[in-house]
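testing teh design pipeline on a random one, pls ignore if ur not involved
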């Protein structure tokens, strides 16, 4: 029950770079890319959710609609996901890609760094035909992941204080979510001060560079909040040390810290259990807590209604054959999101 689609636009996400660098384990050779928008070319037997000509967004977080996670109102990590341990195969145990006669693996149910891709029907959803693919492709990962981390996973409350560690595309989307939820203070944390202007543009009230201080960043944030810590913190980098710092920056009793950044496959973490014993909550977040098929079309509709803007997140637009240039912009911290066009 598969669908073949033509990719129109795809963003370069830090998760793609994690595979290239070896931080995120995956089988090779593999076709990366998972944040995209396209159009359906053909559908397999039994597929009814989309038809040829439909504008769609591929879903790296599928929604089958019948597994425990899909049925539970609090769940969104469908059993059909390939996120837990990347196998690079479709549900039937095959990959539909070959290169020079050899098998190439699929990346987290999608693979969008290619003109055409094949996905299971649980990993694609129809969107409004007027939606611009070069903008709404970000709803396939970066924007939805960050924005949802604030409004769904953390459930940021009006008047609260938030700290966001990491100001890439996902981190800035967290800032946008915190602002939309009515947070009164949003402290943006990054070692790249060049990102501070963009952070303030999308809603940060203050920006902090940990390298400007000799003390740990969690101590800095506690001083900034009168010694009590923030109500909500978000780690959007994927480093165990900053995950611990984000947790330690929260109020020890009612603070909530959310891990949004993808951690390296081989990483481990150790911390004082007293941080949790006192009541603080530590949570993970996949795709912003959204049930993908239900939520992505609604988010696209909200974008078209101008309820949020994606323009601040897109710093570069390049033709697909400039993909290596796009990755270099990401590695050097010169881009927020680069969108590749076919």
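output:
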């Amino acid at each position: 029950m598969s669908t073949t689609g033509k990719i129109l636009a795809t963003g370069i996400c830090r998760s793609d770079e994690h595979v290239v660098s070896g931080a995120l384990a995956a089988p090779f050779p593999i076709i990366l890319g998972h944040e995209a928008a396209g159009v359906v070319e053909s559908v397999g037997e039994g597929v009814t959710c989309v038809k040829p000509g439909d504008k769609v967004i591929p879903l790296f977080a599928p929604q089958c609609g019948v597994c425990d996670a899909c049925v539970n109102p609090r769940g969104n990590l469908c059993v059909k996901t390939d996120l837990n341990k990347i196998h690079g195969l479709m549900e039937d145990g095959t990959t539909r890609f070959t290169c020079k006669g050899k098998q190439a693996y699929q990346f987290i149910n999608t693979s969008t760094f290619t003109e055409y891709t094949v996905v299971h029907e649980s990993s694609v959803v129809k969107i409004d035909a007027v939606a611009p693919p070069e903008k709404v492709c970000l709803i396939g990962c970066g924007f939805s992941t960050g924005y949802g981390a604030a409004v769904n996973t953390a459930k940021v409350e009006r008047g609260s204080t938030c700290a966001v560690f990491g100001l890439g595309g996902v981190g800035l989307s967290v800032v946008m979510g915190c602002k939309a939820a009515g947070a009164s203070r949003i402290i943006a944390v990054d070692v790249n001060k060049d990102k501070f202007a963009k952070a303030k543009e999308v809603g940060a009230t203050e920006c902090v560079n940990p390298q400007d201080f000799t003390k740990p960043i969690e101590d800095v944030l506690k001083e900034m909040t009168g010694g009590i810590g923030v109500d909500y913190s978000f780690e959007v980098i994927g480093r165990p040390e900053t995950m611990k710092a984000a947790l330690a920056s929260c109020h020890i009793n009612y603070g909530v810290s959310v891990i949004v950044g993808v951690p390296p496959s081989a990483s481990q973490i150790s911390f004082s259990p007293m941080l949790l014993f006192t009541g603080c909550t530590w949570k993970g977040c996949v795709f912003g807590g959204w049930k993908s098929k239900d939520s992505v079309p609604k988010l696209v509709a909200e974008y078209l209604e101008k309820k949020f803007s994606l323009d601040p997140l897109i710093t570069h637009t390049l033709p697909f054959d400039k993909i290596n240039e796009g990755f270099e912009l990401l590695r050097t911290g010169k881009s927020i999101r680069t969108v590749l066009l076919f």
